[in-house]
Amino acid sequence: MADHIKIRAAEGTWVVRAGGAILAETGNALELTEGEYTPVIYFPRDDVAMAFLDTSEQRTTCPFKGEASYFSIQTKSATLTNAAWSYETPNDGVERIAGHLAFDTNQVTVERL
């Protein structure tokens, strides 16, 4: 793992809200800090209402984390395109984020309760 990436348990209970609905709630979130970027909260897939997420064709590759798969979120009034992502088979050193999803905070609200 690159020395500039740190993964730790995110303290407290975390939620994702979109379109007036709670899409995820967990006490088992992970916080990934990468260099000077804003920390990203990763939610265990089991704590995400996956019925609201549709697999997207979007893929990106990070040299440190691997290939990210994206999901669009269907709300009552809109589709939030590529608003969540997951590293299904992350690179060595960041395996803890496997089975977790992160969310685009420009499209949804991610907050600690």
TrEMBL record:
- Record-annotated DUF427 domain positions: 15-105
List the InterPro entries. Answer: DUF427, DUF427_sf
TM regions (residue ranges): none
What is the protein's name according to its record?
A: DUF427 domain-containing protein
Q: Which organism is it from?
A: Actibacterium mucosum KCTC 23349
